Amino acid sequence: MRPGSIEIATRAADHFTRLYYSAYDSATRVDDLPNFYRSTSAVNWNGNPREGVQGIRDLILNMPKTTHEVQSYDCHPIPGTQPPSLLVTVSGTVVHGGGPAANPAKIPKTIEGHPRVFNQSFMLVPDTGTTVAPKPGELAKYYITADSMRFVG
């Protein structure tokens, strides 16, 4: 690994995490979130496999709005390419729907409106479709080649 690779990878993971969950929680997520994936991307959402851009679009199309709170993330650069591929793991909570007020006392409780702990792992690979290579110290552009999300508890 080049000197500074870990710092650059950590910055890239921080940047990715902020962009990804902002897109996921946005009103335009059906259009925005698939841009992080490619047709060959593999997604496993809480035990339900999906494939590619259309798979992620189909998944979120029928999902209530979300609010994610990232509590921690970790990034491991994978040697062998320059810039390196990145394994990013994220932990946090997500609320589906309108929050606790979305479940009035007279209605049977559902998972909607209650925070759920999640863990999500991403394998990010450099987007070689970009024509300009990053300069030393710059962040590379990445896309998700594999994504595994699981509710914890």
Structural account:
This protein is of the alpha+beta class. It has a single domain (5-151), classed as Roll (Nuclear Transport Factor 2, Chain: A). The protein contains three helices and six strands. The protein has helices at residues 5-24, 29-32, 52-61, and strands at residues 37-45, 48-51, 66-78, 85-96, 115-126, 142-151. It has a six-stranded mixed sheet, covered by helices on one side. The longest helix has 20 residues, at 5-24. The protein is globular. It starts with a helix and ends with a strand. This is NTF2-like protein.
Our Rg estimate from Cα atoms comes to 17 Å
| Averaged pLDDT | 85
Under the CATH scheme, which class? Alpha Beta
| Tally of individual helices | 3
Residue stretches low in confidence (pLDDT < 50, at least 5 long) are none
Q: How many separate domains make up the residues?
A: 1
Estimated helix fraction = 10-25%
Largest sheet: 6 strands, mixed
In N-to-C order, the SSE pattern is HHEEHEEEE
Biggest β-sheet: strands ordered side by side in the sheet: 2-1-6-5-4-3
- Proportion of beta-strand residues: 35-45%
**What separation lies between the terminal Cα atoms?**
37 Å
Structural class: alpha+beta
Query: Could you say what the CATH architecture is?
Result: Roll
